[in-house]
Write a structure and sequence with these properties.
The structure holds two protein chains of two kinds.
Chain A (H helix, E strand, L loop, with lengths): L1 H17 L2 H25 L4 E2 L2 E2 H18 L3 H10 L3 H5 L5 H31 L8 H27 L8 H14 L11 H7 L9 H7 L8 H29 L6
Antiparallel strand pairs in A: 1-2
Helix pairs in contact in A: 1-6, 2-3, 2-6, 3-6, 3-10, 4-7, 6-7, 7-8, 7-10, 7-11
Chain B lengths: L4 E16 L3 H10 L2 E16 L3 E6 L5 H8 L7 E6 L8 H4 L3 E5 L11 H11 L4 H15 L14 H13 L5 E5 L7 H18 L2 E5 L3 H7 L2 E6 L2 E6 L1 H8 L2 E8 L5 H7 L6 E4 L4 E7 L4 H11 L2 E8 L2 H11 L2 H9 L1
Parallel strand pairs in B: 3-7, 3-8, 5-6, 6-7
Antiparallel strand pairs in B: 1-2, 1-4, 8-9, 10-12, 10-13, 11-12
The chains are: A mainly alpha, B alpha/beta.
Chain lengths: 264, 344
């Protein structure tokens, strides 16, 4: 059975590979984004050495690493699930002896692997050539970050799955999906690190899963969060991963009861 | 529990909540704050049992509740109330274990993966259903040969014609050798050659392997060719459950006899010949006429009258075909007779 799940990863990877040309332009768009934020932060810093605990170099690295992490963990599982619910093809998924949501997760991972190899890594190389990004030299930091990145993917996908599943309960969850996208980008710290948020908002963020997607791992990678606290950060990620399983399971169970297959 | 039953359904009911959209801007605003729902009962307390090895047709108008029943039987939908046992499982409870023993084909929905080749889809299903490579090869070879698919195996699914795709869907649903096969409008949109091929194939499989088949269809020829039994649904209730012959005799109101005469025969003369009988004549052309007689009138009686009064060249007795009968039942709604048949 596990080999079937791995096959879903493989097939999605190969399918993405078939459409790889779409992603070449993505690399350029991400590079432009990183560039825009780089110059913006340069202007904001002006003569100051540090802001909210970030040095200019740390900030540049933070921006580059966060965007490139996004290149990896981003996926459209919410849209895929919502579409399958809306056009009724979720029915076909339910006659298979597998877990629909796990299959979705696997497909998302196949996409993630593709994005990492053909989007994130080449993108990162290009960005490092253009901007003064300083990457850590300690291999353990890299290793820890890689594991954290995987959890970024898991948590982001879980939020996507949860958003997608709302299509069972409302006729159109397009607005919700858009809102989620903006919320994840903003609250995960891709656009602005959470340390820059007003006090009350960053306090609220402590209790939301979004920071575990980008802000916390990127802070570890850029060295802003000392290595000794890395384990604590990782613990937060694992906790959110486990916590998010609960609403997904409940939503799925409720959805199964009220599922109503469109188109007869 | 009776081991011989493939499907056992008791007082099965499914209700849906359907959002009511109120009219106009004010209606839309009201909907925003307080949604109103209509409760729709698609399946109303139906009961039936299907023994192993039977091919059963499940028919009814659009919206009669056929697909909803199939979706409950396959574990996709959770019933509102009632009991279902399929293959010894309660479908929606042990879904992942249960679906290993069933095959499903939705005529209007592909279950193959659109972007990958047919054979890759089959390989993926092999892993999903945990079929051993050896069994898979054996089974695939049989099916491919029987349904003539060898040329299609390496093509991507999206490049197949409907007939080709449908045959592949059948193979996909049978690779794990299910005990029960559910077919939801399997022949919709197919040409007569492919239809016949699929019917023959299903017949053979039922005969050789004893696969239980439940199929919904709008094509009554599927039913006539395959089914020893039909269940007819109307507005969520079973209005007939029995064999097809009985359905025909019970619901057909009469038959038609077509005469070809040696010479021109006016309508008035024919009507005069049979004036004491309750029959109706229609003239096709100068030498051909059709007599419609209800079951109450015996064929020999009517024939004797006509034979005695006219020079007949040819006679053809036309049984009302199933389509007409079923159309008749749908149109009348047949509420009056439904009570007694439902309990029989």
């Amino acid at each position: 059975m596990m080999s079937a799940y791995i096959d879903f990863v493989r097939i999605r990877f190969l399918m993405m590979l078939a459409y790889r040309v779409n992603y070449y332009s993505g690399i350029i768009i991400y590079a432009i984004n990183i560039g825009a934020y780089y110059f913006l932060w340069q202007a904001i810093y002006g003569d100051q050495e540090t802001l909210a605990g970030f040095t200019v170099t740390q900030m540049t690295t933070y921006v580059a690493v966060s965007w490139m992490a996004r290149a990896f963990y981003f996926n459209n599982l919410d849209r895929e699930i919502a579409n399958e619910i809306r056009d009724g093809s979720v029915a076909v998924q339910l006659i298979r002896p597998y877990s629909y949501l796990l299959v979705k997760m696997m497909q998302g991972f196949g996409e993630g692997l593709f994005r990492m190899l053909l989007f994130m890594i080449p993108g990162m190389i290009i960005v490092c050539l253009i901007f003064p990004v300083t990457l850590p030299t300690d291999p353990t930091t890299w290793l820890i970050y890689l594991v954290m990145l995987f959890f970024s993917f898991l948590i982001n996908s879980q939020i996507n799955i949860l958003t997608g599943l709302f299509a069972f309960f409302v006729e159109n969850n397009e607005g919700m999906m858009r809102m989620k996208r903006v919320m994840v980008d903003l609250f995960s710290g891709v656009v602005v690190p959470i340390a820059f948020f007003p006090g009350w908002l960053s306090a609220v963020m402590q209790w939301l899963p979004f920071q575990a997607i980008t802000y916390l791992p990127s802070s570890v990678f850029t060295g802003r969060t000392p290595g000794s606290e890395a384990l604590h950060v990782f613990g937060v990620q694992v906790l959110w991963f486990a916590a998010l399983l609960v609403p997904i399971w409940l939503t799925w169970r409720a959805a199964r009861k009220r599922l109503f297959v469109q188109g007869g | 529990m009776n081991q011989m039953l493939a499907i056992d359904v008791k007082d099965l009911r499914k209700q849906f909540k359907v959002q009511k959209n109120r009219e106009g801007l004010s209606g839309a605003l009201k909907d925003l704050f307080k949604r109103e729902y209509n409760e729709v009962t698609a399946v109303k307390d139906i009961s039936f049992q299907i023994p192993q090895g039977e091919i059963c047709g499940y028919i009814g108008e659009n919206g009669a509740g056929k697909s909803t029943t199939i979706k409950m039987l396959t574990g996709i939908l959770v019933p509102t109330s009632g009991d279902i046992k399929v293959n010894g499982y309660v479908p929606y409870k042990d879904r992942e274990k249960f679906v290993n023993g069933i095959g499903v084909v939705f005529g209007q929905r592909s279950q193959l993966w659109w972007d990958i080749g047919v054979i890759e889809s089959f390989q993926l299903l092999r892993k999903v259903y945990r079929v051993s490579e050896q069994d898979f090869r054996k089974r695939l070879n049989e099916l491919v040969e029987r349904l003539q698919l060898s040329d299609l195996l390496n093509r991507p699914v999206r490049k197949l014609s409907l007939g080709q795709r449908m045959r592949c869907e059948l193979v996909a649903s049978l690779l794990h050798n299910p005990l029960i096969l559910f077919l939801d409008e399997p022949t919709i949109g197919l040409d007569i050659v492919v239809k016949t091929e699929i019917r023959d194939f299903l017949m053979q499989m039922n005969r050789e392997q004893g696969t239980t088949i439940l199929l919904t269809t709008h094509d009554l020829q599927d039913i006539e060719a395959l089914c020893s039994r039909v269940i007819m649904l109307d507005d969520g209730r079973i209005i007939y459950d029995g064999n097809l012959e009985e359905l025909k005799t019970r619901w057909s109101k009469g038959r038609e006899i077509q005469f070809q005469f040696a010479s021109q025969t006016p309508l008035a003369k024919l009507q005069q010949l049979t004036d004491t009988l309750d029959v109706t004549w229609t003239l096709e052309n100068e030498v051909t006429a059709k007599m419609w007689l209800p079951h109450a009138v015996s064929v020999s009686d009517a024939l004797a009258r006509v034979v005695g009064g006219a020079d007949i060249r040819d006679i053809k007795i036309i049984e009302t075909n199933t389509d007409d009968i079923v159309r008749g039942i749908y149109q009348t709604g047949s509420a009056a007779t439904s009570k007694e048949t439902a309990t029989s």
